[in-house]
């Protein structure tokens, strides 16, 4: 079992009967979906889920989990998702898979938000490994980019993998991948980006995680 599987299995043990569970997106979240489905098959546990992306919804349905729509709910019990970066003060960078809107809605709607990661995700500073993904309304991308550049951001619209088109999110937004001055911390960047018109959502998740589980060579450390 690799570290992503181990930490996903640990997170599945937090799930209790009758919970509504938010499902993240990515390889670690996929392991959690599998672990949750296995728990449901092996025990009396019955849960309902809400997916943060179409791909997670399809994965969850394929392993027999019930998937609800967030439009039916204002709160969920638990959300489990991975992260691209985790800082010492527990801020997260997310969005390499660019389903930011649902991911942040679920993180906020959850009574408990458990982040699952291996130790490769630990960083000293937000944005040190990846640019900050910023979802923008398509018609506002130029205006939003200019506002972001005015606070020191440098970057471009994200292209698709074949580099012959732009990435478009599940909600029809474009994504700007932007780098910022190293002196700006996660809280400052969060406040700056929250204040820019045309920005739909961005990948800084500050003060949202209630538990962070880090796997390192089979051992799980729990933070917060
Ligand atoms: O949008 C993607 C999410 O933020 C993922 O949770 C993040 O990219 C981590 O992915 P993985 O578990 O595959 O390392």
Automatic annotation (TrEMBL):
One of its GO terms (molecular function) is ribose-5-phosphate isomerase activity. The keyword Metal-binding does not apply. Gene3D superfamilies: 3.30.70.260, 3.40.50.1360. InterPro entries: NagB/RpiA_transferase-like (IPR037171), Ribose5P_isomerase_typA_subgr (IPR020672), Ribose5P_isomerase_type_A (IPR004788). CDD domains: RPI_A (cd01398). The active site is at residue 103. One of its GO terms (cellular component) is cytosol. SUPFAM superfamilies: D-ribose-5-phosphate isomerase (RpiA), lid domain, NagB/RpiA/CoA transferase-like. Transmembrane segments: none annotated. Keywords: Isomerase. Belongs to the ribose 5-phosphate isomerase family. Homodimer. Catalyzes the reversible conversion of ribose-5-phosphate to ribulose 5-phosphate. This is Ribose-5-phosphate isomerase A. It comes from Methylophilus medardicus. The lineage of its organism: Bacteria, Pseudomonadati, Pseudomonadota, Betaproteobacteria, Nitrosomonadales.
